[in-house]
Amino acid sequence: MATTLRLPHLFSPGCVLQRGGGVPVWGWAAPAAVVTAACAGRTAEAVADGDGRWRLTLPELPAGGPYELVVASGDESLVVGDVLVGEVWLASGQSNMHMSAVNAGFSLEELTDLDLPRLRCFSVAVRGTGRPLDDAEGAWVAASGGAVSHISGAALTCAIDLHRRLGVPVGVIQAAVGGTFAEWWTRREALDAHPDLRPLMDKLRASGAADADPADHATRAAAAAWQRAAFHQDPGIAPACAGWSAPGFDDAGWQAMALPCTWESQGHQLDGACWFRRTVEIPAGWVGRDLLLSLGPVDDHDHTFVNGELVGRIGAEHPDAYCRQRRYTVPARLVAGRQVAIAVRVFDHYGDGGIVSGPMFLLPLGAPIRQRLRLEGAWRFRFELPLPPKAGQPMPPPPPGADVVSAPGNLWNGMIAPLAPYALRGVVWYQGEANAVRAEQYLPLMQELIRDWRRAFARELVFVQVELALWRERRPVGDSDWAELRAAQLRVADTLAGVAVVPQIDSGDATDIHPRTKALVGHRLARRILDLAYGCGDGGQPPRYAGHAVAADGSLTVRFRHCWGGLMAVGGTVRGFALAGADRRWHPAEGTLRGDSVVLRSPAVPAPVAVRYAWADNPDCSLASQDGWPAHPFRSDDWPMVTAGKRV
Length: 648
Prior knowledge:
- Helices cover 17% and strands 31% of the residues.
- By secondary structure, the chain is an alpha+beta fold.
- Among the domains are: 239-387, Jelly Rolls (Sandwich), CATH 2.60.120.260; 544-631, no CATH class.
- Strands 1, 3, 4, 6, 7, 8, 9, 10, 22, 23 and 24 form an eleven-stranded mixed sheet that branches. A six-stranded antiparallel sheet has the order 11-21-12-17-14-15, with no helix packed on it.
């Protein structure tokens, strides 16, 4: 008898279900079949529709577990074991949310020593498509023994704090993709229904992509042609280079490069194929044992050889290949002696290339991480196929219906729609860098995204955004699209209940849009969530502008709210303020703290009419509350923004 009863990947062993309300469960069965589900003594029933789809809602489940989720229909049954009930959060956004814990300030020792079996993570496979999917690939893993090193560093830190503070199981569902715009995460119908956002859909319709079928043969052919035009294609290993993986190959004439890094950072402005080689001596006790080889992310694709034999590869079939951790098993038969030759062929089809961030090591399978043999350092390298860089060249638009992330609604369709209506408490969101050039449009866009996600999940999801971190060259306070995006984030929180922003105006990297301080982000997310979602936090909030007054002596006093314990200047000096007069020219101001206010003066502005704080991409600012929250940037003026009128 053919099996017809099926559940989405979300309902798989190790899953975490949300406490405190009904729990939707759905799947597929024979048309018109009666389906029952039971978990922790609660039961529910549904009838499959004509397409075999069914959905039911289990009554509120008690926190704890492990339980079994049993789904049955006729003679068929499915048993999902090791089910926990607690708090479930969705972590979404772009690369700073996607950035894995092992690349975001956590050490391998910390991740390996982590032993929280009741904290579980589910990473949604990257997928963008023109039509909503009904399932998302992925699996639940417990936060033990380094198994979650690939999970978002910010989300993992937040989840650990929540788990320890609340004392219940916690689940994190990660759906994040680097370099993505907020409209790609928004349902197309929601964009179309909003007058300020409809132009996004008008442009999509004009391309012919809105109604195209990605399964159509002609569409697939057009998508393949677009991929060939947009990105370099790997022709495969050249016959003349086939011996470059051999253990006895003489690479003495190759150059040296200290890995991990991008090869662009070492002066090689190229795409294409490059080989890296290194021979290491392993301890005698490792001979004849299976080994784990970790390289970290490789940008973009790799063929990895050990002692001349391919042990693993990740290629263009994975849209997120550029950020996937490479962890390959080296079979014992290849470890016949103490010399281990490692050769990695990297193919970069666009943008940066290389073995970019680690961790890089060898280790016997199952051995403690502290025994690892580190592989960071000097490797030999040689370009097999140098190609002119694609980055910066105009890319043709994707064809109608192409299965790609880069279109309005495509990430909603491929990565969020398959999750709904899984019961969640809320969302942690780190995104906005891509939208900064259109910061004025971000307010209605994020308002609509949040409203629509709440409709799709049928819950008033708590939504906590991460403020954009410091980036780019440090310049005086003035005009900034980055600052305007931060202000839009705050406006979203001011206009929608259950929405907040955690500041990062004291954190970042002028030369790297991906700061490594994700643990700080996670701690702040958890601190804000404990108040907003659970009412058991410390009550503190980041200081916010509450108004100002100009005195006859030319000083300007700014009042703040949310100043628990009063204000302080980190480093002892008030920094980050600027004043402007009627000429609208900004000048730095000196400040003096006075309770919950700051008194400002500038000799260049004898009659100030407006004040700004931290209004720059990378401001030098110091204001915080005594309980450690940095003050949010603000401007008191309503003068035209640099992103005014910039729309798609």
